[in-house]
Amino acid sequence: MAEIVPFKGILYNPDKIDNMAEVVTPPYDVISENECNNYHKANPYNIIRLILGQKNNTGKAGCHARAADFFQKWLADDILIQDKAPAFYVTTIEFSLENKTVTRYGLTALVRIEPFDKGVILPHEKTFSKVKSERLGLLQKCHANFSSIFSLYSDPQDKILDCLKDALSNKSPDMDFMDDKGSRHKLWRITDRTLHEHITDAMKNKKLFIADGHHRYETSLNYREWVSGNNPDFNSEHPANFVMMYLCSMEDPGLIILPAHRVLSGLADMELSSVIKKCDDYFDITIISYKNDENKKVKHDFISTLKANSSENVIGVCMKNSPELFILTLKPQVMEKLFSDNLPVAIRNLDVTVLTNLVLTKILGFDQTRLDDENLFSYTTDYSEAIDVAASGKADISFILNPTLIAQVKQIAEQGFAMPRKSTYFYPKVITGQVLNRLNRE
């Protein structure tokens, strides 16, 4: 099913770049404007110049043209060097979570792209058309993958991961650095052809589930169509048929999903004052007295209660100018009675679906335009921050959620459904800049 192949990756030249931490970034879509500026200042060869250039007065088209110029110049000046032999690139990231050190393994390879309806590569979230159009413009100028799509595969017996670990056991990493968030990254080239064949064969019966990078994957499909329509020599082995992916086992203990709390601004006072009362018909409501950050224990107990009830549909609520926190526990059969005709079971009882379809759409009356309004919504993975930003009046209301489970992601993707946007936050994000991939013939 899934076709996984090694490739001649493009990497930063260690003779030219002393500190990899100065040239890598998170994926483009989680970089704030302030962070973007800082990455531009960090190093003249920072990957930010390729993935998210500063607009100045030239707009996106100008940014894409500059990115292509930088890419070609860095290749010509040996800032970036393409490997001579095909390789799989195995990486680890060591990070801290709740005062524990966690390690996640990844395999970076090329994957033959397939339409979602083939059932080989599956999405789990909806996407924005505007973002796909912008990313396509970058691909058409640069003809390269600058960052990997984060995808998952199921391997309950850990055969693939154990095989990769064995291959690394006596090898020093080819890359080893600490990023600006305090996470440690290592990378090994695997050039053994026998091992390539073993991994490729082991992956053939796998389905791949996109964790992060839905927009970039769909853009790769559009790019392939564009290349095939403009290239009379296009065939099934053209590089545009493949995309660079970071593949992670669903059974890897280091695979973490954080919650994506919703923080809303721009609501009318009438909406805020009535929301809890309107929720009373659908939820059992627990009210907790709270005065901003004066009572840390209350906030801690509130968060602990949410986490302890993750097996139920629970949503935490904090509003500006309110001395109370609220825990909404969905009453039995509510979603079945209201949405059984238009929401499949796999999606119907997700916390994020309850929030989107019941609270935001039915109770608050949001239409699709408001649900898509990027100025209305912001997101955070931090429980405490979600509470504080509303309690301090910097936002109108925060909806605090428990994280989606890996099993739910798999089930929904396999059934061909899509979650609401920002249903998952896989942590940490896959670093951008470790390996790049050309999409035109050498």
Give the amount of beta strand, in percent.
15-25%
Count helical runs: 15
Q: Give the strand tally.
A: 21
Q: Give the domain tally.
A: 2
Net shape: globular
- Biggest sheet layout: 9 strands, mixed
Please state the average pLDDT score: 92
Low-confidence runs of at least 5 consecutive residues: none
Percent helix range? 25-40%
Structural class: alpha+beta
**What Rg do the Cα atoms give?**
23 Å
Task: Explain what you see.
It is a single chain. This protein has 442 residues and is of the alpha+beta class. The protein has 2 domains: 4-256 and 427-438, no CATH class; 261-402, no CATH class. The protein has helices spanning 33-42, 48-51, 59-76, 129-142, 159-168, 193-203, 214-230, 269-279, 296-308, 334-339, 345-348, 351-363, 368-371, 383-391, 406-414, and strands spanning 4-5, 10-12, 80-82, 88-97, 100-112, 121-122, 144-145, 149-153, 175-178, 184-190, 208-212, 242-249, 256-258, 261-264, 283-289, 314-319, 324-330, 377-380, 397-400, 425-427, 437-438.
Break the fold down into its secondary structure elements and pairings.
Elements: E1 4-5, E2 10-12, H1 33-42, H2 48-51, H3 59-76, E3 80-82, E4 88-97, E5 100-112, E6 121-122, H4 129-142, E7 144-145, E8 149-153, H5 159-168, E9 175-178, E10 184-190, H6 193-203, E11 208-212, H7 214-230, E12 242-249, E13 256-258, E14 261-264, H8 269-279, E15 283-289, H9 296-308, E16 314-319, E17 324-330, H10 334-339, H11 345-348, H12 351-363, H13 368-371, E18 377-380, H14 383-391, E19 397-400, H15 406-414, E20 425-427, E21 437-438
Parallel strand pairs: 6-11, 8-12
Antiparallel strand pairs: 1-5, 2-3, 4-5, 4-10, 5-12, 7-21, 8-11, 9-10, 13-20, 14-18, 14-19, 15-17, 16-17, 16-19
Helix pairs in contact: 3-4, 4-7, 5-6
